[in-house]
Amino acid sequence: MAQLQRMDANLDTLSNELCQVNTYVGHIAQCQAEIGGYTVAFFPVASANESDGSGCADDAGVDDDATASTDADDGDARGEIPVSLVNCTKLRVMVLAWNKLIGKIPTELGFMTKLVSFLAQADTLTGGIPPSLRNLSLLIYFSVAYNNLEGNILKSIGHLKTLSFFGVGDNNLNGIIPSSFYNISSISVFSFTQNQLTGTLPANMGLTLPNLKLFELGNNKFFGSIPSSLCNASQRQKLDLGNNSFVGPIPTNLEYLLDFELLRLTSNNLGRDLDFLTTLRNCMKMEELGIDANKFEGVLPNSIGNLSTQLNVLYLGGNQIFGSIPETLQNLINLIILEMDENLFTGVMPTYFGKFQKLQGLFLSKNKLLGQIPSSIGNLTQLVVLDISQNNLEGSIPITIGNCRSLQQLIVSQNYLGGVIPQQVFSLFSLSLLLNLSYNSFSGKLPVELGSLKNINSLDVFENNLSDEIPATIENCLNLENLYLQGDSFEGIIPSSMAFLKGLECLDVSQNNLSGFIPKGLEKLLFFKYLNISFNDIEGSLLTVGVFKNVDAISIIGNNKLSGGEYGMGGEASTEGDVYSYGVLVLEMFTGRMPTNNMFKDGLNLHNFVKMALPKRLAQVVHPMLLPRGRNGSNNFNNDGNRRR
């Protein structure tokens, strides 16, 4: 899926939980004030550890009606939660969050029977949730998210009838959610994200949990269908079931959820029709909708335009949605992220995309879009990522791209774009992550303005029709790590200034018309791990230090004037070495992967990666651009690697 797409779902969940923490602590404080204006005394954990053994200040002027709170949320508390805190018999609220606490949650916690709230999220606690928690009959709020807790969630905890918030996300808990939890009618927030929990959801859970506002199960192992009764809890605000194995359709009675803000169903096996979208028309507070990486198919209905105008995030990628992008989509004027990649969309890129003034991420890759990139793209001045790769787009990059002054990634690879690369592309000083123009038909030269991209990390312009010299101003791209210029018609020398790119890791200039010598200084680059200069006219002696010591890290064949050791290893050149190096190059071209790809580890390398795929899974390893395309723009192979008939 596209790079920036989730705006970091884990961070989003963390922010949601922190917001809920603040809200509920505030509610607790308000309730206490209404009951009798209790005095609140603060006892940092550090003080408790250094006390005379009582671990509390019961005699420090706190009367019988007082509510005490341990407050160590300044991030400085260390060590274990002191067992001596059980002597604080009047303690109502315990806040231990955002510290460096270790060890287990004390079993003795169950003796603190007046405890209303226990907050220990974002520490490094281990062990399990203690069974003694069932004794806290007044407990309203329990949050231990972002720790290292493990084990099962005990059934007895589900009998706490006053519980309103239960947050255990981002731990290592396993097993099922006990059935007793689905009968806590007072519960408002259930957060179980990022664990190893499994099981199905009860068909009647929406009836037994009428006050449920936030339900988070994302990144677990749940399966089965989504119960339609979930929509009966009319107070529902957020539902996150993403990254599980749910199947079947999405319930079509969502119109009753008037306060619905977030629906995240990413990465399941849900589908197939999109009828449920029509039922979201009454959810006028919705800010995020994610159904990407599922099995939805069919035409995107015009009712997509009836979604809330407050919608910021729309994830539709990784499905089988086809047809044109509907005109009604332009109603969603507050979109920040629009992800429609890995579908079967046809037609042109809508010009109305230019109306999305707040858009930061636009992901349309791996579709069948035609026509030109609309000039209105230049209206997206807040755009951070634009990925329109692997389509059938043609024409040139509009010069209005220069208005996208926030752009960090520009990916237009594997299209039919041509002409000279506009100078405006190289005036985007914001480009810091990736500029990928590969597998197109761009012509002309790389301008000296290339050096203006001082923050660029990866530059891919390979497999085009570019010519002339590689500009020496490349030395100004001080953050450049990956430079891919292969398969063009560059001539002249490899600029010696490349030796100034201290962070350079990969350089591929193969299959050009370059001449001269290998620049001095490349061997001194500390992070340099891959060099391919094959099929040029490079001459001189091969260096024997640095990256040149590793035969798997360099490719030099096809340079008849280049002499030296057996590819930097100190031996004599041989026919066998040439054949080996040539074979590696062929595999690179065949798969589009280099030997240094991060996927090659634990015994897996480029050679056996291809070998394991032969003969029946050819299409799974060959580069998509090498597969013959049918009339509809798709390749002519089935998933099993056999040609379609």
Mean pLDDT: 84
Low-confidence stretches: 1-15, 17-55, 57-75, 566-572, 630-645
What is the radius of gyration? 30 Å
Q: Helix share of residues?
A: under 10%
- Total helical segments: 5
Percent of residues in β-strands: 15-25%
First-last Cα distance: 30 Å
CATH architecture label name of the domain at 498-600: Alpha-Beta Horseshoe
The total count of strands amounts to 41
Using the alpha-carbon principal axes, give the shape.
globular
Q: Which class do the helix and strand fractions yield? A: mainly beta
* Main sheet makeup: 22 strands, parallel
Output the CATH class name of the domain at 498-600.
Alpha Beta
CATH topology of the domain at 498-600: Leucine-rich repeat, LRR (right-handed beta-alpha superhelix)
Furnish the topology, listing elements before pairings.
Layout: H1 9-36, E1 40-42, H2 45-49, E2 67-71, E3 78-80, E4 91-95, E5 100-102, E6 117-119, E7 141-143, E8 150-151, E9 165-167, E10 172-176, E11 189-191, E12 196-199, H3 205-208, E13 214-216, E14 221-224, E15 238-240, E16 245-248, E17 262-264, E18 269-270, E19 288-290, E20 297-299, E21 313-315, E22 320-324, E23 337-339, E24 344-346, E25 361-363, E26 385-387, E27 394-395, E28 409-411, E29 416-420, E30 434-436, E31 441-445, E32 458-460, E33 465-469, E34 482-484, E35 489-493, E36 506-508, E37 513-516, E38 530-532, E39 537-541, E40 554-555, E41 561-563, H4 575-591, H5 606-613
Parallel strand pairs: 1-2, 2-4, 3-5, 4-6, 6-7, 7-9, 8-10, 9-11, 10-12, 11-13, 12-14, 13-15, 14-16, 15-17, 16-18, 17-19, 19-21, 20-22, 21-23, 22-24, 23-25, 25-26, 26-28, 27-29, 28-30, 29-31, 30-32, 31-33, 32-34, 33-35, 34-36, 35-37, 36-38, 37-39, 38-40, 39-41
